[in-house]
Specification:
- It is found in: Cell membrane.
- Keywords: Cell membrane, Membrane, Protein transport, Translocation, Transmembrane, Transmembrane helix, Transport.
- The chain is of the alpha+beta class and 180 residues long.
- Among the domains are: 11-91, SH3 type barrels (Roll); 138-166.
- It is built from 4 helices and 5 strands; from the N terminus they run H-E-E-E-E-E-H-H-H.
Length: 180
């Protein structure tokens, strides 16, 4: 067998080795996280429930989910061990990292639309302007425009008359077409 035929198999085996190696590292990190759990630390289960660790056994964890509610979970069901700040932020809504000097995003846009007193208001309305000619006699171009306007008015009157005729009662037939 030549090297060219074996090359795809070698690349495939190498890729599989790299993928399983990274997955194995992730599994080891998760197992280490679960083994480092101590009573009093906050956790999130794989189902999304937040609780406080009460007791850690070899394969199970007893957690306190609320007053008088103790739950027993398998260690594999623990999705993450949270830091105290993160647990308090999520469960109790306590924020420790807020800076008092930082800008706060408003709940509505009203503060974004306020204007200063010095700003000019902009009128976006359409203004009607009428151009008045100072000449007493119309020029040839003005006369031609007037003639075109009269012709257009006559055409629209004809179209309106045709539309009025078609609005009348349509001609009834018994289904036979006359064009054969």
């Amino acid at each position: 067998m030549s090297l060219v035929t074996l090359l795809p198999f070698i690349v495939l085996i190498g890729a599989m080795f790299l993928m399983t190696r990274s997955a194995k590292k992730k599994q080891q990190a998760a197992a280490q996280m679960r083994n480092d759990m101590q009573p009093g630390s906050g956790i999130r289960t794989i189902g999304g429930m937040y609780a406080t660790v009460k007791e850690v056994n070899e394969d199970t964890v007893l957690v306190d989910a609320g007053p008088g509610v103790d739950l027993l979970f398998a260690k594999n069901a623990i999705g993450a061990v949270l830091t105290d700040d993160e647990y308090n932020r999520i469960v109790h809504g306590v924020e420790h990292d807020l800076k008092s000097d930082s800008d706060v995003v408003p709940d509505d846009a009203s503060s974004l639309t306020e204007t200063d007193g010095d700003a000019k208001s902009v009128d976006l309305g359409k203004k009607d302007t009428v151009e008045e000619t100072t000449d007493a006699e119309p020029t040839e171009a003005a006369a031609a425009e007037a003639d075109d306007a009269k012709a257009d008015d006559a055409k629209t009157d004809d179209v309106k008359a045709d539309d009025a005729k078609t609005d009348e009662e349509p001609k009834k037939t018994d289904g036979d077409s006359e064009a054969k």
